[in-house]
Each structure stands twice: as C-alpha cells, then as structure tokens.
Amino acid sequence: MMKFLASFLVLAVVAQQAYGDFKCSLEVPEIPKNWIDMKDACIAGVRHQIQEEINASYQYLAMGAYFARDTVNRGGFAEHFFKSAKEEREHGSKLVEYLSMRGQLTDNVSNLITVPTVAKQEWKDGASALEDALELETKVTRSIRKLIQTCEGKPYNHYHLVDYLTGVYLEEQLHGQRELAGKLTTLKKMMSTHGELGEFLFDKNL
C-alpha cells in the first residue's frame, strides 16, 4: 500500500502540473496528533532529498535517451542509465513512503515535488557521461550526509530515520560511487589505447 501511495504521488505531480490543482472535498476527521513528532528542519531535509532524487532520475533518463538514439547507438550505456534513473526514482518514492509513515503528507502534492528541467542532454562520449554520473552521485551522497547531520542533531534526534538513511541510502551511494569510478577508469584506459573501438567494446560489456 505504501509503495502504491508513493508511486501515485510522483505521478500525481505530473498530472497536477498538466491539468491543474485537485483536492479531496471530504473534511479531514479529527484524530490524535501526538504520534506525529518529526521536527521542521528534518522534514524540510527529507523533502529536499526527495527532490534531489527526482532530479537525478530525470538527468539519468536524459542520459539513457541520448545513448539510445539511433545516431549514437550505445545500448550498454543506455541500459545502464535507464536503470540508474529507475533506482533514483525508487529512492525518492521510498522517502515519500517514509514521510507518509510519519504522518507528514498532509498538503498539496505539488509542494512536495517539482518536475525538473534537464539542462544537459548530450555528451561527447561515454567517458564524459560517466564523469557526469559520478559527479551526480557525489552530489546526492553529500545531500544525504547533510540530511543525516540535520536529523541527528540536538535537541531532537530522529534515530530511526538516521539509521535508515545510513544503513540503506548511504551504503548504496558509496558502493555506487566506487562502481562508477571503476567503470570510468576502465573505459578511459580502453579509449586511450583503442580509441572509439575501446568505447564500443566497453559498451558491449557494460
């Protein structure tokens, strides 16, 4: 149910921007609120991180679309970046689920996510795209670390969220950065000795 809600909210943002605002006309019933205990700074940080994940997803989608062009035709790179776009979108959805679990999804969905505009949509070669991907992952990692620092600070420590971010998100980010750095090193070595043929062979095994 939570996964459905998160996916629905992401889609709802696009629909809202295309067709205008929509709200439920039913009155919200009165229920106890003392279980809702997240503090403003941490809530704002999570919302910011959701946007960072969505931004990264759109950038990876642009990368995948570029390498999937018939005039570029690098199927390995395209598949890799489309997979990365899906992962980043899922990261954003999981944080939406978390906010829902903590009782924080109470306002207009357009205030949660803004559909980003992708500035860069072409790359000179696979190596430059992997460099951009590594920079993008580094940016997301720094954002997660900042969020962790915000949510574990005094006077209120969100232990559960901090543990979740550290054990799931940060763990995956660090492994992902190392994997991208290794791929980039291998590709540059192949291109330095074999040129475009090196990129072609790398793409076939990506």
Tell me, rounded to a whole number, the average pLDDT.
Answer: 88
Major sheet details: none
Estimated share of beta-strand residues: under 5%
For the secondary structure, the number of strands is: 0
Supply the number of helical segments: 6
Apparent shape: elongated
What does the radius of gyration come to? 20 Å
Describe the structure.
Helix 5 (159-194) packs across helix 6. This protein has helices spanning 2-19, 40-67, 75-101, 126-151, 159-194, 196-204. The protein has 206 residues and is an all-alpha fold. 28% of the residues are buried. Helix content is 70%, strand content 0%.
Topology:
Blueprint: H1 2-19, H2 40-67, H3 75-101, H4 126-151, H5 159-194, H6 196-204
Helix pairs in contact: 1-3, 2-3, 2-4, 4-5, 5-6
What are the salient characteristics of this protein?
6 helices, single chain, mainly alpha, 206 residues
In short:
70% of the residues lie in helices and 0% in strands.
